[in-house]
Amino acid sequence: MAEESFYGVTLTAEENTETWDFVDEDYSRGQKLVIKQVLLGAEAKDNEFNVVEVTTGKDSIQIPIAVLKAGETRAVNPDVEFYETKVTFKLIKGSGPVYIHGQTIKDDVEVVDMEEED
Amino acid sequence: MAEESFYGVTLTAEENTETWDFVDEDYSRGQKLVIKQVLLGAEAKDNEFNVVEVTTGKDSIQIPIAVLKAGETRAVNPDVEFYETKVTFKLIKGSGPVYIHGQTIKDDVEVVDMEEED
Amino acid sequence: MAEESFYGVTLTAEENTETWDFVDEDYSRGQKLVIKQVLLGAEAKDNEFNVVEVTTGKDSIQIPIAVLKAGETRAVNPDVEFYETKVTFKLIKGSGPVYIHGQTIKDDVEVVDMEEED
Amino acid sequence: MAEESFYGVTLTAEENTETWDFVDEDYSRGQKLVIKQVLLGAEAKDNEFNVVEVTTGKDSIQIPIAVLKAGETRAVNPDVEFYETKVTFKLIKGSGPVYIHGQTIKDDVEVVDMEEED
Amino acid sequence: MAEESFYGVTLTAEENTETWDFVDEDYSRGQKLVIKQVLLGAEAKDNEFNVVEVTTGKDSIQIPIAVLKAGETRAVNPDVEFYETKVTFKLIKGSGPVYIHGQTIKDDVEVVDMEEED
Ligand SMILES: [Mg+2]
Ligand SMILES: [Mg+2]
Question: Tell me: the pLDDT tens digits for B76-101?
Fold first, then answer.
């Protein structure tokens, strides 16, 4: 069974960047971050777009993953995974608050060890 | 196969807090709570925000997981998991009712026991 | 591999209740009902709330799982599971029609039988 | 690992019916169709309901799985599975176009063959 | 455990086409692309439909998988998979930007090798 933890971070105009990196260097295989929901706070301004951009270490992909706007789109459910890579989330438009929810997972390394001595 | 149960709790202005903790202390590994949906009741007031905040025992994360408002957002689907940690849900804004739905899961501890005597 | 079947029921003002119970008593382990979607029919009245409440046999939980309203919320996706328990769905508000969709699943009982005679 | 293929069909007023049946008769176990999304086309008429009904071979269930309307509900995500059964999709209301998306899956038949000769 | 990478591409009027093909020819089995979300950018024009069409190499299926419009539908979550096939995404209507999110996955080829020498 994989070992996992809840991941929850808040982005605002003042603190608009958050980076996730490999949590455990001794456990080099199978670590990932899964983003399930990006949610706009009740305090968000009317008619203001709030855009969260992601930048990955592996492959250097840079792309918005959430476009939120009060009265139109309160939440999106990207359900994307970042596997064995550093990831940075940045609120590139809007003043938030925006909440990012997901899991960090350390996948099982299946060890099958069968020793038979006759 | 994992053993699981439906999880459903109601938050209102009067009863605005609910805590989930490890159900079975004798079964220490792999217990988790999965939150699939947070739903605003038909009785909710117009134009009132209803916000559910989560606080975790492990890592002490405190963050809203649902922002609901009649006429705009009736339900969100966070699909987040709380693994081997106490979790408290609190209705920090609005009078509800708000319904939280999910599963509690006790994961299988796979026991592979291979004894061979020749 | 699990054995599964599509589950689809319709609730209306006249037939407002539906109960699911263990399908196969001879197969006592691992039977569950998964509810993926609750959908409001095209014939539903404007501005009328349609609320589906669930009652479980195990733990006796009673809670709405869908709040639908034409022009606001046409469908919700609870994605909840009822495992080894009787479940009753009731349209407690509104005249429908409301459609409930999901799966019934009989999980595999893994039988590992290794006999070796030398 | 299961063998799977993308499933995508278009329903219109003129071609309003589509049937899926077991693809491979020689592979009798574990074939299923999963419906992930039903989407209303940009050409759909304003204020017209578009309803997709499903009829199953096994258990003869007949029920709408999508109710779509421009300006209100552009897409639904039923996430339902049809396992070892013929399925017919019919656009019973509206002129479309409506797009149905999912997967066909042939599940693995796990063959564990352990022969030991001493 | 499968090896996976985040997939994120941007379509605009100027660069309206993107093709995904087997990443690794030496690893011929089990490669797929999963599309989780298609999201309309904050810069999209009001009342303009943005439609993303997919064309597959295997079975030559051609069908829209996303119909987006500012003020109505900001994002869809198709959750479809393209398995062992080339796939082309094209923005056939609208000027975007439209963001496509998902994963590329190389499934595990399970190798069970049990050698016993007595
Ligand atoms: Mg799911
Ligand atoms: Mg899913």
Answer: 999 999 998 999 999 999 999 999 99
Task: For domain C3-106, give the CATH number.
Answer: 2.60.120.340
| Helix (H), strand (E), coil (C) string for chain A | CCEEEEEEEEECCCCCEEEECCCCCCCCCCEEEEEEEEEECCCCCECCEEEEEEEECHHHCEEEEEEEEECCECEECCCEEEECCCEEEEEEECCCCEEEEEEEEECCCCCCCCCCCC
Residue-wise pLDDT tens digits, B8-46: 999 999 999 999 986 655 655 678 999 999 999 999 999
Q: Which of C11, E114, C18, C78 is nearest to D112 (CA)?
A: E114
Q: What is the pTM of this model?
A: 0.91
Which tokens in the block code for residue D86? 């013929």
d(CA B102, CA B89): 13
Residue D46 Cα to ligand 1 middle (Å): 31
Pseudo-torsion of CA C40, C43, C47, C53, nearest 10°? Answer: -40
Measured distance between the N- and C-terminal CA atoms of chain C, rounded to whole angstroms: 32
Say if residues C53 and C60 touch (Cβ distance below 8 Å): no
The C-alpha angle A85, A90, A94, rounded to 5 degrees, equals: 160
Nearest chain A CA: its distance from E42 CA (Å) = 6
**D52 phi/psi in degrees, rounded to 5:** -105, 125
C108 touches chain B (CB under 8 A): yes
User: What is A3-105's CATH superfamily?
Assistant: Nucleoplasmin core domain (2.60.120.340)
Burial class (CB in 10 A: 0-12, 13-18, 19+), E43: middle
Per-residue model confidence as pLDDT tens digits over D46-91: 999 999 999 999 899 999 999 999 999 999 999 999 998 999 999 9
Q: Closest by alpha carbon to E36, among B37, A87, A9, D101?
A: D101
Which of B77, B85, B118 is nearest residue A77 as measured by Cβ atoms? Answer: B77
Complex ipTM over 0.85 = yes
Q: What distance in Å separates residue B41's CA from the closest CA in chain A?
A: 17
What Å distances lie between residue A40 and A10, A35, E12, CA to CA? 10, 15, 26
Domain boundaries, chain B: 3-106
